[in-house]
UniProtKB/TrEMBL annotation, chain A:
Entry protein name: RNA polymerase sigma factor
Transmembrane segments: none
Protein family membership: Belongs to the sigma-70 factor family. ECF subfamily.
Species classification: Bacteria, Bacillati, Bacillota, Bacilli, Bacillales
Domain RNA polymerase sigma-70 region per the UniProt entry, residue ranges: 27-89
PANTHER family: RNA POLYMERASE ECF-TYPE SIGMA FACTO, RNA POLYMERASE SIGMA FACTOR SIGV
GO molecular-function terms, A-Z: DNA binding; sigma factor activity
One Gene Ontology term from the biological process aspect of the record: DNA-templated transcription initiation
Source domain of life: Bacteria
Keywords attached to this entry: DNA-binding, Sigma factor, Transcription, Transcription regulation
Domain RNA polymerase sigma factor 70 region 4 type: 130-180
TrEMBL record, chain B:
Protein keywords: Membrane, Transmembrane, Transmembrane helix
Domain of life from the UniProt record: Bacteria
Protein's UniProt name: Anti-sigma-W factor RsiW
Keyword Transmembrane in annotation: yes
UniProt record similarity statement: Belongs to the zinc-associated anti-sigma factor (ZAS) superfamily. Anti-sigma-W factor family.
Gene responsible for this protein: rsiW
Naturally occurring in which organism (per UniProt): Halobacillus andaensis
Record Gene3D superfamilies: Anti-sigma factor, zinc-finger domain (1.10.10.1320)
Ranges of residues in domain Putative zinc-finger: 3-38
Pfam families given in the database record: zf-HC2
InterPro entries noted in UniProt: Anti_sigma_zinc_sf, Znf_put
Length: 187, 214
């Protein structure tokens, strides 16, 4: 897979736009997932994920082929989501738990997980509860937790994606885990 | 062992997969002895399981198509350059034509002075070349950027570039055809750039042939 992606990147660099389609379809779920867990709703996540791919395309010449493409791509995506979160009012993610926005939350969930069997509705409720708990984390802990446990990146890779020292990654993961432990202990 | 600090620290190290053998043994020993730490550890592991269990989310079905539709258009210039690289002969031909046409156009535009081929007894007056009545021009006559008025005779071709035939008598307006009466050779009137080009090409070809014959 890696070699296929490398080949496609070379083609895109040469100016072949259609080769980028395979790259998008290969990484779309991962990137969308990161964005979704970070910003919390599917519309915004789609918007940001799309923007991330477009930026990756326009800046493909600056990508160093000796490095991992996914790391580079995730970095663009997380930077975009962090920017987006910063631009919002600081109380936004607390607002997400308010009843008024609840409907939107559920709706966006359903739009993503299409055609869910009915028996899974219960687990969906639990999932959306946990999803909101992740969103309630401060963004700097949220990003490491999402990358570590939802995308299962290695600590070193997280450090590269977020461009922070690995020691900082560890500290943030520890604090993030503690915060989640407190929030989820009664589930 | 200090529960708050050391034990929790070791738990996180364990969760990061960085616990040494010796540390692992110490943590295990401590957990067996300390129910509160056991509970803490259990909660940590459980929250991780819960997070991981939120399930993978896939992007909307038309995501890739949307991205592709929103990509900036392949840069036309780059496209163009790529084509040039692929067809060097075509490129050479294109450059040749560009240079040729530009030189012809600039020659057409710059040459605004009245010039006439070397012949004696011609009168040049207000951009009009007059062949007086009693004069017979010997050889071809070329007038550039000026009108021509012929009263005498021309023993050769007439070429009129960017100018008109004029006459004193408006009733009897003359054109190239009528001038045949005065000229013994061909009459060329060149008023357009394309005609000018054609004229050049013809001259060029005839030059080559005259070289050959010499």
């Amino acid at each position: 897979m890696e070699t296929m992606i490398k080949k496609k990147i070379k083609e895109v660099k040469k100016g072949d736009q259609s080769a980028f389609e395979d790259i998008v379809s290969f990484y779309q779920n991962k990137v969308f997932h990161i964005c979704y867990r970070m910003v919390g709703n599917a519309y915004e996540a789609e918007d940001i994920a799309q923007e991330a791919f477009i930026r990756a395309y326009t800046n493909i010449s600056s990508f160093d082929e000796r490095r991992k493409f996914s790391t580079w791509l995730y970095r663009i995506a997380t930077n975009l989501t962090i920017d987006r979160i910063r631009k919002k009012k600081p109380d936004y993610y607390l607002d997400a738990e308010v009843k008024g926005t609840d409907g939107l939350d559920m709706y966006s969930q359903l739009a993503v997980d299409q055609a869910l069997p009915e028996e899974e509705v219960e687990s969906l409720e639990l999932q959306s509860f946990i999803h909101r708990e992740i969103l309630a984390l401060p963004p700097k802990y949220r990003s490491v937790i999402v990358l570590r446990y939802l995308d299962e990146l290695a600590l070193q890779e997280i450090a590269e994606v977020l461009d922070i020292p690995i020691g900082t990654v560890k500290t943030r993961i520890h604090r993030g885990r503690e915060a989640l432990r407190k929030r989820l202990r009664h589930v | 062992m200090n529960c708050k600090k050391e034990a929790v620290e070791l738990m996180h190290k364990y969760l990061d997969g960085e616990l040494q053998k010796e540390e692992e043994r110490r943590l295990r020993d401590h957990l067996q002895a300390c129910p509160s730490c056991q509970n803490h550890f259990h909660e940590l592991k459980r929250s991780i399981v819960l997070i991981k269990d939120t399930g993978a989310i896939s992007a909307p079905s038309n995501f890739t198509a949307n991205v592709m539709a929103n990509l900036p258009k392949e840069k036309k210039r780059r496209n163009f350059i790529r084509k040039l690289q692929r067809h060097p002969i075509l490129t050479a031909a294109a450059i040749f034509f560009v240079l040729m046409f530009s030189s012809i156009f600039s020659a057409w535009n710059q040459d605004q002075q009245v010039t006439v081929s070397k012949q004696e007894n011609l009168i040049i007056q207000d951009n009009t070349v007059i062949v007086p009545e009693d004069v017979t021009v010997d050889g071809d006559l070329v007038v550039r950027n000026g009108d021509l008025k012929v009263e005498g005779k021309i023993d050769g071709d007439i070429t009129l570039i960017n100018g008109n035939f004029v006459t004193d008598d408006p009733q009897n307006e003359l054109n190239g055809e009528n001038y045949r009466a005065y000229a013994s050779g061909e009459v060329n009137e060149v008023n357009q750039v394309f005609e000018w080009m054609w004229y050049h090409t013809k001259n060029f070809v005839s030059d080559i042939f005259s070289f050959d014959s010499e």
